[in-house]
Amino acid sequence: MTDKQAVVDALQRLPENVSLDEIKEELKIMASVRRGRADVVAGRTKTHQEAERLLESWATTWNSKQSGQTRRLPT
User: Fold this and answer.
1) How far does the chain reach from its first CA to its final CA, in angstroms?
2) Is the pLDDT confidence value at 73 over 70?
3) 25-68 residue pLDDT tens
4) Residue with more model confidence, 1 or 16
5) Distance between CA atoms of 71 and 62, rounded to whole angstroms?
6) SS3 string of the chain?
7) Cα–Cα dist 11/16, whole Å
8) CA-angle at 3, arms to 47 and 35, nearest 5°
9) CA 25 to chain centre
10) Are 73 and 60 a contacting pair, CB within 8 Å?
């Protein structure tokens, strides 16, 4: 399905009184899902364990910045 056809189908599923902001949000979500699916097909994914490590690293970095520290935990 082309991007244009996906947009037309999405618009047809929305109620008649939908706002432009709601349409924009729907299209942003749809585009994100399509990019994610393309990433999976292309092999641009992380394992669950890799994702957990990344999240922990980001949280640690963010917490360090919040407390005025700049150190990072080793990975």
Assistant:
1) 41
2) no
3) 999 999 999 999 999 999 999 999 999 999 999 988 888 888 77
4) 16
5) 10
6) CCHHHHHHHHHHHCCCCCCHHHHHHHHHHHHHHHHHHHHHHHCCCCCHHHHHHHHHHHHHHHHHHHCCCCCCCCC
7) 9
8) 15
9) 13
10) yes
